[in-house]
Write a structure and sequence with these properties.
- The protein is 40% helix and 15% strand.
- α10 packs across α12.
- Bound molecules: pyridoxal-5'-phosphate.
- The site of pyridoxal-5'-phosphate has 14 residues, from α3 and α4.
């Protein structure tokens, strides 16, 4: 079976090494030494000054939204994982969707200004599949209108933009370390900011607002993560270069095979990106062809995913809005299996099924 991804797992003795320390200390959660160590190593690896490790990427989004006091209308992308929109709604904001580019799948920054009203407080957008948005333009628009920016960088672990870490842009960037991500801690996430005051605010928000054991700085939530999750992160981080190299290899292998069919389209990656090759999305001519290919792959025990379908304007808890490009892309896009475990032979097998199905269905 070839699922959409198979998580990397470190040699079990290396995870056990950290578990032995947990048993010795009997310190399981609440900002333990492994969480601290992981935060330090992630900051070092990612090349940033401030990062807080949280329970998952969704909570990281919610903590960011709360810390920036977003309310009223927030401009966002309709083409992302549901958590980008649901976190806004959960925090009482009204998502205002701006359509996407048909080739990069990121928000169309040229349409953002038209959507700004006096109720707009922020912009929350995703680097889709790790491909950088037009960050400079988005940040400039936000600063002209006094809006806050959160970049949902759940897919963008390790991505650089113009030789700088992509997650340095915006007021807050959010990472996810869910098991489906190329760097994972089983469950996990992080908020990143350049602003030490904001970092302090988010640290309180992450821990119930605790100010010591007997006082509270304000409202907070339980956004902490455990020593067991940090142990997985510490074990996996040692292999990150090997993981990234394998993803790149598989991405290029897919591309060299599938570009033989001129009816397939692939994501346009920003030329100034040092990309992480985390996903391999394919855009088919129409939804019917996508469904035929998906069914044929599933018949052979290959399980791609319709990332992202449906487009988020279709959620039953948001106002209807017109985003035709996102609707069109969402109906025709399929992410093929990507993992550091997959061999060239497995990638080739997937490609052969796709190409063969296309040959007989067009
Ligand atoms: C774009 C995007 N944002 C947010 C999330 C939420 O992250 P998590 O699953 O860690 O809560 C995910 C992922 O799974 C995602 O893909």
């Amino acid at each position: 079976m070839i699922p959409v991804t198979k998580p990397f797992l470190p040699p079990i003795e290396e995870y056990q090494f950290y578990l032995d320390k947990v048993w010795k200390r009997n310190w399981l959660t609440n900002h333990g030494p492994l969480v601290n160590d992981l935060e330090l190593r992630l900051k070092d690896y990612l090349g940033i000054d401030h990062l807080l490790y949280l329970a998952n990427g969704t909570l990281a989004l919610q903590v960011g939204i709360k810390a920036l006091n977003l309310e009223g209308d927030v401009i966002t992308t309709p083409f992302s994982y549901v958590a980008t929109t649901s976190s806004l709604v959960w925090e009482g904001c009204n998502p205002v969707f701006v359509d996407i580019h048909p080739d990069s799948f990121n928000i169309n920054e040229n349409k953002i200004e038209d959507a700004i009203t006096d109720k707009t407080t922020g912009i929350v957008v995703t680097h889709v599949f790790g491909n950088p948005c037009q960050v400079e333009k988005i940040v400039a628009i936000a600063s002209n209108y006094n809006l806050k920016v959160i970049f949902d960088a759940a897919h963008a672990f390790g991505v650089h933009y113009k030789k700088k870490p992509l997650i340095m842009y915006g007021d807050v960037s959010v990472l996810s370390f869910h098991a489906t991500k190329l760097f994972h801690t089983v469950e996990g996430g992080a908020v990143v900011t350049k602003n030490p005051g904001l970092l302090e605010k988010m640290a309180y928000l992450r821990n119930f607002g605790h100010e010591g054991t007997e006082a509270f700085n304000g409202l907070g939530i339980n956004g902490k993560n455990s020593e067991f999750h940090a142990a997985m992160g510490l074990s996996n981080l040692k292999y990150i270069e090997i993981i990234l190299a394998k993803y790149k290899e598989n991405y290029n292998h897919y591309l060299s095979w599938l570009s033989k069919n001129e009816n397939l389209e692939f994501q346009y990656i920003h030329p100034d990106a040092r990309y992480n090759y985390a996903y391999f999305p394919v855009l088919f001519e129409n939804e019917q062809i996508l469904l035929t290919v998906k069914k044929e792959l599933e018949k052979h025990q290959v399980f791609p995913r319709r990332y992202f379908y449906p487009s988020l304007d279709k959620l039953n808890y948001v106002e209807k809005q017109s985003v035709p490009v996102a609707n069109d892309v969402a109906s025709r896009i399929l992410c093929l299996p990507m993992s550091s475990h997959y061999s060239h032979e497995e990638v080739e097998m997937v490609c052969r099924i796709v190409l063969r199905t296309l040959k007989f269905s067009t």
